[in-house]
Amino acid sequence: AKSLRMPNGADPVVRGFRQTLDNLPIGILTIGSFLHPNYTKSPKFPFVLPVRQTILAREETLGDRLRSYAAEYPAFAEVLLKKADFHDRKRGIIASEEYFGKLLSALDEFLSDVERYLEASEREWLCGMEGITIVDIGLATLLNRLYVLGLEDRFWSDGRRPRLEQYYARACQRSSFQCVLPSKVSILRTVWVNTPPMYKAGLAAVSSVLLSSTLLKR
């Protein structure tokens, strides 16, 4: 099998892209899009409204749950309380629309750099024409997350960034890329495991309907 490693002589610009991709706060971007839905136009499965509401409900109660665990398990209280405080501070930052807007602007700038690079290099993939590397997996995965969050209209569709749009379409056609994406079932399983019991009945009903709908469309 062909290695996904970047070649030793990879362009320093591409190495910079990989470093940026590795450091992007994808979780914050995801939760931020739930908290500020005016920035998204058409969220896709699995991040439809009922699932987003369930994830947000879990986020809202996480600090309190960590503090209750700290009271229940004194030996771990210091660590749990620090995690609770960190979560609350992070939640406050994510809830700021100003912060979320700045995050989207920074992402805009990064994707503009990628668009210019793809146009100037005339490459199908960031490290060449022969095949994808780990940096392509990172970029395509980011684009997929933006797509399911409903942010593609802002970042590349309708000719906004044509090279990036073509790049994402090529990536989606590759079975190797599809294999690294979490399945719809696995995402719902993760949501379920991390959902407080009081919300599970509603989510179970929603998940059943959504999965049935998805299977019928295959």
UniProtKB/TrEMBL annotation:
Matches recorded under InterPro entries: Glutathione-S-Trfase_C-like (IPR010987), Glutathione-S-Trfase_C_sf (IPR036282)
A UniProt-annotated Pfam family: GST_C_2
Domain of life: Eukaryota
Family to which the UniProt record says this protein belongs: Belongs to the GST superfamily.
One Gene Ontology term from the biological process aspect of the record: mitochondrial fusion
Name of the protein: Putative ganglioside-induced differentiation-associated protein 1
Domain GST C-terminal, chain residue ranges per copy: 48-197
GO CC annotation: mitochondrial outer membrane
